[in-house]
Amino acid sequence: MKKGVPLFITFISGFILIVALFIPHEPFGSLQERFNDWYIIVSGFTLILGIDSLLAYHYRKIKRKEKEAPYSFALLLTFIITLLWGIYSGIKHGNPFAPTSTFLRYFYTYVFVPLQATMFSLLAFFIASAAYRAFRARGLNATLLLISAGIVMLGRVPKGEDFSPYFIAVTFILIAIVCILEALPRISIYERVLFFGLAIISLILIFPIGIFLKTKLPLLSDWIMNVPQLGAKRGLFIGISLGAIAMALRIILGIERTYLK
């Protein structure tokens, strides 16, 4: 009985919403709107539960005097100040984000926005580090990713097609030097001759390829974004949608019951 009632409510709610998508007539149309209103109300209560859980967690850390207690104290203090200041501005001006609101002018503009910008600027370093690890040419897939990313970045940067030949030339020269230095101690004399011959041919072909990319780089960048990238993104969205449908059916039919624990 303890799990039967939530399972029954989940099944009825999900079944009605699915039927309402295919039969947008009475009484299903009004029921869908009613369920949407209930969803908003339930979401509000879950937000309250989340705030209560967050405050209780950090209060316990302060009470136990743990190592991160100062950060928990700062969180609780800023939460209380934000809540009280927002309520006061909402009562006085009718909206906390009104143009004349002190909450908007001081707290949101001079505190929240700079802190948010700082957080996203720090994320840029993590993204750069992850890109460095992902773009290392360790195999065929990583090499294709590296080449495609380089073409797209040069094609999207203003005046990128102007300095792309020089960038490609310097990059290939550095790669050739590194490969030669790493391979010399491990290969025979015949392999060295072959290796140096291929390296010289590659260096000779660098500049014609660079000049070609200078005229075709924007078109090639647009093609990568509109054809392979768009096709891969559509496949990804289709997979996500199928996974969401499967999970929804498992929840509606009572197969997935982890949310009841």
The SSE string, one letter per element, is HHHHHHHH
Question: What is the count of β-strands?
Answer: 0
Low-confidence stretches: none
Give the rounded overall mean pLDDT. 78
Radius of gyration: 29 Å
Structural class of the secondary structure composition? mainly alpha
**How much strand?**
under 5%
Total domain units = 2
Keywords: Membrane, Transmembrane, Transmembrane helix
Transmembrane segments: 7-23, 38-57, 69-88, 108-132, 139-157, 163-181, 193-215, 235-253
Describe the protein.
The chain crosses the membrane at residues 7-23, 38-57, 69-88, 108-132, 139-157, 163-181, 193-215, 235-253. Keywords: Membrane, Transmembrane, Transmembrane helix. This protein is an all-alpha fold and 261 residues long. It folds into two domains: 4-127 and 252-260, no CATH class; 135-226, no CATH class. It is 83% helix and 0% strand. The chain has eight helices and no strands. The chain has helices at residues 4-22, 28-63, 69-93, 102-134, 140-156, 160-183, 189-226, 228-252. Helix 2 crosses helix 3 (69-93), helix 5 (140-156) crosses helix 7 (189-226) and helix 6 runs antiparallel to helix 7. The two termini are 14 Å apart. The relative contact order is 0.06.
